[in-house]
Design a protein that fits this description.
Helix content of chain A: 40-55%
Distance between the termini of chain A: 44 Å
Oligomer: homodimer
Largest interface: A-B, 32 and 32 residues
CATH architecture of one domain in chain A: Sandwich
Number of helices of chain A: 8
Chain lengths: 194, 194
DNA sequence: CAATTCTCTTGTCATCTGTCAAGTATTCTG
DNA sequence: CAGAATACTTGACAGATGACAAGAGAATTG
């Protein structure tokens, strides 16, 4: 499956669009390749672009007390956009942790599309709402779980991350140190094999 | 300040609306009073209404392992809406933990308003985006903090909650037991006074 | 392909949180 | 206003995580 086909498949999931509309978007979509290690956005920079992952994995993190704290991992079909509409400097970094194929979109490109397809407003709103709900569900899960439960939950919901992301980055995403993640994994595998 | 005036002040904050549009919304807004202890939504029920707090405090919580886990507290000017657009049963409860004055809105009311004021779509999208960003910022904060730091942060950002909400509910919101919250508070006040 | 860097694991010890339990203070209700 | 229910604090102990350190293993790079 080449990038265009992948994008078509992803855009088709956006609810109330018909095939012609999907095709229009696919044609106008800008796709770019990025190497592992490339930084799409740094702390303090003003973000202007929106991305969707066609292939690869992007990590979002911030630096606190001199340490990198991962706050999100974006993989195939996930979108990530500037935190604020008001051009505020970013608090976090976006880093490709694999070779990536991403769609890239700007504010003006977005407005251009909206002019042609006003119904996209609905789609964008739906994406926003879905993101809220996802964030909310994850938040509830996180708050009400112990570190070990959080590990088990992530392994259940996104098992592929453990093969693709260095464990110390996953550890900070789970709110713990790499050593703790290592011990939890050992504890669980010990329990299984006894 | 009576409820109508409060609503006018709150709606005026919605960016690209002019005074006439604000007035139209204020007039059409339905306001209701709720007693402390009233449950607006229970787990398993299908949520149909959106609310905005004019006065009072609403707690959102879910039950996990037989315990109530608070996931949000909504106070003056904050909105809360169904998790999903697809009429799924709710996973959480909404409970008035003070006597409340709330604006109540339904899907059909929302559509009616959108017919009259199509530009509201923009406002709704902006609210959704703001909510995402807020949730994201809180998430980053939560992930990268220890329980004690989370307590200090909440006291800095929403100090009023500690006077209005039972501490054991705040404790579960911070991902800890009431005893731990109590100890943290003692530890900090001991340090201050030494 | 060898050396360097990065990553993961393991050990020890101090500290913090969870659990169980009891006692005090506060609020609610008849 | 008195009794009951709820909320908060404190103590002791077990278990888990954080900090520090060292070593094994894997990946990267020149």
């Amino acid at each position: 499956m080449n990038p265009k086909e992948k994008i078509r498949a992803l855009v088709s999931n956006f609810r109330p669009l018909n095939p012609e509309e999907v095709e229009l978007i696919v044609e106008k979509t800008v796709v770019k390749n990025f190497k592992k290690g490339e930084i799409l956005l740094r702390e303090g920079q003003i973000p202007t672009k929106c991305y969707m992952v066609v292939e690869g994995c992007v990590r979002e993190y911030l630096i606190k007390d001199g340490e990198e704290k991962s706050t999100a991992f974006y993989t195939e079909s996930e979108t990530f956009t500037p935190q604020s509409q008001q051009s505020k400097p970013s608090k976090h970094y976006w880093e490709c942790i694999e070779d990536c194929v991403l769609t890239v979109s700007t504010k003006s490109y977005e407005e251009e599309l909206l002019d042609i397809l006003p119904r996209l407003e609905l789609v964008f709103r739906q994406i926003a709402i879905d993101k809220i709900n996802l964030a909310k569900a994850e938040w509830s899960e996180f708050i009400s779980s112990s570190p070990e439960e959080r590990y088990l939950n992530l392994q259940k919901t996104k098992p592929y991350l453990f093969d693709r992301v260095p464990h110390h980055q996953i550890a900070s995403y789970l709110g713990m140190k790499p050593q703790s993640l290592s011990r939890i994994r050992k504890r669980i595998s010990d329990t299984k094999n006894s």
